[in-house]
Design brief:
Low-confidence stretches of chain A: 1-29
CATH class of the largest domain in chain B: Mainly Alpha
Distance between the termini of chain A: 68 Å
Strand content of chain A: 15-25%
Largest sheet of chain A: 6 strands, antiparallel
Largest sheet of chain B: none
CATH superfamily of the largest domain in chain B: RNA polymerase sigma factor, region 2, helix turn helix motif
Number of domains of chain B: 2
Distance between the termini of chain B: 20 Å
Oligomer: heterodimer
Amino acid sequence: MLPNNEPFADVAISTNTGSITDTFGNLTSTRSDWIGKTVLGYKICAYAGSGSYGTVWVGQNPMGESHAIKIIENGSFGSEELANQELRGIRLLKEMLPSHPNLIGIHEWDDSPQQLIYSMDLADTVPSRKDDPNHYLPDTLAHRIQYKGRLSFAETQEIVQGLIEGLKSLHANGLVHRDLKPQNIVFVKQIPKLADTGLITFDSSTIGVAGTMGYLPLDGTIGPEADLYALGKITYQCVTGLGVEEFPSIPNDLLKSPEQLQVFFLINRFWNKACSLNQKNRYQNIFDFERAFQKAFSPLNRKRSKIIDWFIFVGILVLIFLLLLLI
Amino acid sequence: MELTTRSELLARLKKDEEDSWNEFVSLYAGFIKKVCIRQNLQDSDASDIVQQVCMEWFRACKGFEYDPKKGRFRDYLCQMVSNAITKLKKKKRVQPELDEDSLCEDDPLQKMIETEYRECMVKKAITIVKSEFEPITYQAFEWTEFNGMKIREVAQKLGIKTNTVSKYRSRVKERLQKIIGDLLEQHE
């Protein structure tokens, strides 16, 4: 049974004190307003950031588990339709894909007329804030690209493969994410997860165009194909460290670095096709996308297996040598 | 991507259309900020000037009737930027005062503003071109024109024939030149 119809177990949003209800109503809440309060059974202990249409907090339940708590005032949406859209997204994710490793886990929610509150997996904090629990900063792909610049091919491969797995589940269930971008990819115990579920919806020709400029196909394509286009752009950003608006430019040093040649130009061809202007030239489904992605990154795997082969070979030689010594 | 002409943009700004405001800011904010930074202003001061010029411009254009005979739009905007920088420098006494009302053509600030303005238009044109051509087509152009790579090398790395690289390069180059010309003309 989903918990959305249950009353608050431990409601700090109390009409007796009026404090939080009032805060919801007049849009004057500050970060400190929520610290120490209890929502959905979670004690709010730190501010996490502002998501689409709401604020996100770090909460701890009586079992000591930390989750992210998103609090959205209905008034802040501008329209009821947008509030319903967010709720629809979290319901779909919770009901259809409750525990996929690469999709953010939704735990509890309450959708009273004044606000929508829900708890979800808490992203890791960035390494620089690990020792400072009061200043939580979520580890997102956007943060990694911003602070590291370009990611290694191996790290990119691991992250994008995880996102492909998440998308495979969504698309197989007839769902589309519609707002894939580095800001919406979080790391939970170092595993990449698709977050910001507000725009998740059923794949249908009736859905409207949504998402973020730069990650949306210019031909107006919607549905799963649009998610693939966005993932192509994300791969580009991971490898080059550039902003999405720079696509398809390549930094000069990357272009001319001899050790990058073979792998890089295969990957470049991969995202050129994934983000083609013409929908017909792009990968038609997540499986085509995955095959091409793995093929582009395959020289890395071959390089790895060569190293492993070399270690095995040396190991066997050592064993033979030891055996000969024993004999 | 369609080019909005200067007069269209002005008309939409006068009608308080939100997207016209965003378009104005996206077109000119980077240019204004870069000019400020090159004038050794701090980032926070540069941001203040961007906001100030955009707001001033937004207020001014409500009663503004564009008449090309009275002067170019570009000069008017450059004058606003120049005045704002000069005023701030006077206030902070960063450099000897400049005569804010008489910017002559050999004024280094004015020259620099002109250069930055052209660069801003070139960047805008590149953004438009990128949205009009396939990634591979644009890369064939960029790698040969901007990255100094040889046609044969580009062909090998993109997995296409050398004559295709040449064809792509000329197509993008031609279009880019056309857009830059149009932008400079429409926003002058």
